[in-house]
Amino acid sequence: MSGATNNLNDATPTCTVLYSLAPKGLGTHECESLLSYVARLAEAHRVSLAALCEYVRQQTPSAGWRRWLNPVVGLSLRVPEAFISTLIALTGQSSIKLCSFDSLSNVVHLHKAQNFRSQRHCPMCVKRTRYPEGWHRLIWSIEIVQACPEHKVLLVDSTCGASHDEWVYQSDRAYTPGVCKNCRKPGFACIGKAPQKAAAQQLWVAKEVGKLVQAITRGERFDASRLPSGISIIVKQRWKNTAEAARELGVAFSTLHLALSGEARISLRLLVSLCSAGGVSVVSVLRGEVSSLLRKREPIVFQRYFSKDKQPRRVSRLRSEIERVLAREPDVRLVRLAQMVGVDTSFFYRNFPDVIEHLREMRKTEAPLKRWRANLKLARRFLAAKRELLSLGREFSTVNVYNSVGVIVRSGVPLRLYLFVREKL
């Protein structure tokens, strides 16, 4: 017989404790998330997601985490490495570890990068791959991604659109990829909204994050030492200095400075914003392949990029308080204004860029007037000192002026005023 083998181990398939399901979409931007994989595995075993997670936790030696009250949230955040190792041992699928951003966590700060508050999906992708062949993409869980890079439509919240009368019993509601949790309709047919076309900025972000997902799920590893040089090139060629870059990107100066020096990991939001300003690829910056900018563009600032309902709740409450302070003290400084409303200055750069611009314009108009008043006051003091010294028969010199007025005349405005009073008056 052709193709026969004499080794019994090669002819006999490996027996695993759990079904050896292969993750879907590996090596592409459509790679499924770890939550989707575990949910499909639970569906194959006809058990709930919570029961399967608890079984994996019990099989893990010296498990360092408690039982998840909500497995959907637990699997959406950073999953313990022991959980993934046990799941690999039970299924025999070593590629499960590629279904998350854990390999990127040593290079990029992933805090608030993944959206675990609500599930989202692309309506076109869900229609194309229906239950039971559907899966939840990893890119849908990234908060800054608002569109599908393939179908160029906006992602929608996986919230049931049917009336409460059509909902199933609470015990029958379970998370299944591609199926509504409440009414159990495949493809989220209960929503019934037409897909909306995505904007150019939203598509650019989706495509760049999609390339990043594709590289990570192929097993590519990035070196953290190469990243500071790449973002330094963007900042130096796009802006005059780091302070100007931080203001335009809507972040604190220390946040960008620590990322440039390599003392702290850069967030995924800030990395994508920097790459959008230079027109370079996110993956190229992570690989250290950036030598110059392709083109200079306006950066995507995600505080403006998100809709108003995505912003912090206290933003709307603080705006009215800020307006009252500005009406009472028009020439207030930014530090003083931040202290009065109870926030730091970086909060203004992130959420109130219009207030920052207003304060800058006020400084431009108020500063010359303040300087003119100060110079006039100093000139009057010089003139009074000159009259006093002449009446006493003493010379109008810098030493005598210092003893009389208390101003050291060396350079700048005091010296010009001193010479003017000495020669003209």
Q: Can you tell me the residue ranges where pLDDT is under 50 for at least 5 consecutive residues?
A: 1-12, 305-310
Which sequence of strands runs across the widest sheet?
A: 1-4
Query: In angstroms, what separates the terminal alpha carbons?
Result: 118 Å
Determine the number of helices (DSSP H or I, runs of at least 4 residues).
Answer: 19
Number of domains: 4
Shape: elongated
Please report which band the strand proportion falls in: under 5%, 5-15%, 15-25%, 25-35%, 35-45% or over 45%. under 5%
What is the residue-averaged pLDDT? 81
Counting helices, strands and paired strands, the structural category is mainly alpha
Number of strands: 4
Level of helix content? 40-55%
Order of helices and strands: HHHHHEEHEHHHHEHHHHHHHHH
Kindly provide the radius of gyration, computed on alpha-carbon positions and rounded to a whole number of angstroms. 31 Å
Q: Quick one: biggest sheet?
A: 2 strands, parallel
